[in-house]
Fold:
Amino acid sequence: MFKNESYADKIIDGKIISLKVLEEVSKSIIDIKAKGLNPSLAVILVGNDPASSVYVRNKKIMCEKVGIKSTEFKLDENINEEQILDLINTLNKDSGTNGILVQFPLPAHINKQKIINKIAPDKDVDGLHPINAGRLMNNVESLVPCTPQGCMIMLKTRHEDLSGKNAVVIGRSNLVGRPMCQLLTNSDCTVTQVHSKTLNIENYISRADILIAAIGIPKFVKAEWLKEKSIIIDVGINRISVNSNGENKKKLVGDVDFEEAIKKVSAITPVPGGVGLMTVACLMRNTLIATKLQM
Ligand code: NAP
Structure:
């Protein structure tokens, strides 16, 4: 992958780490199936967004691999909010459903927060319900959003003890940035959160022992901003056009200028092959946790 092979050991490999997580999940699922339980995940997809359909398909394939029963509810783009809430209500009450996931984005006429609030907290495998956010804030056991959970597992492959590290999180979404800050704080990091209104963002980034980039702007973070020997977790997934031999092709890149950054830092996640794989693995992990919570 690299001209200079010495960079290879700097890569935090999502493929290897996610496989380990999935192996552990599979083993636990065998154990709880022996006790008569059958972990199951309900996935609700509204409309025909092509990217969402791919994500849902990938989740279904992963469920099959680890032994989770998955059921897809494909709803029409024009469905009204009440009908979705009714379906969630039915799934909340169904003892044969352990996890409920609503694939985002939703059509504009649906209130996303209302949908999240309806999911029973112990079935909320995305960890977005305010009760789960509150549990995370109180540092008590909760269903933690999959992407930041995956980032923490990746980080801990390099530093088991994160105590005292300066961590900077770029982004403040409920899905990634906010829970990420909470997890890092719960691991005794000193956390700074920056966002689109932060002035002189590079001043904060340059002090980060750990940098989490969750922005959605290709190669936003420049290598010259980074602290030597820092650890970089790149959450961003951006599709860009590149010209290869006169042909226009699409390529996935992260929020960090990976090729330059890897020369300077001690460890970095690639895109693709990094956080994205961990997100799906942690969804399986959360479905298992949700099943145990309901035991
Ligand atoms: P989001 O809700 O759009 O949030 C983006 C955050 O970046 C916001 O907090 C925004 O600040 C901040 N931001 C935007 N422009 C900025 C700038 N110029 N300087 C500093 N901060 C800036 O996105 P998200 O859901 O958190 O996702 C972020 C990225 O991660 C996206 O590329 C997404 O595709 C990717 N993602 C990947 C995975 C995975 O599994 N790998 C999972 C989820 C998301 P404001 O709050 O001020 O607007």
Q: What stands out?
A: The two ends are 45 Å apart (CA to CA).
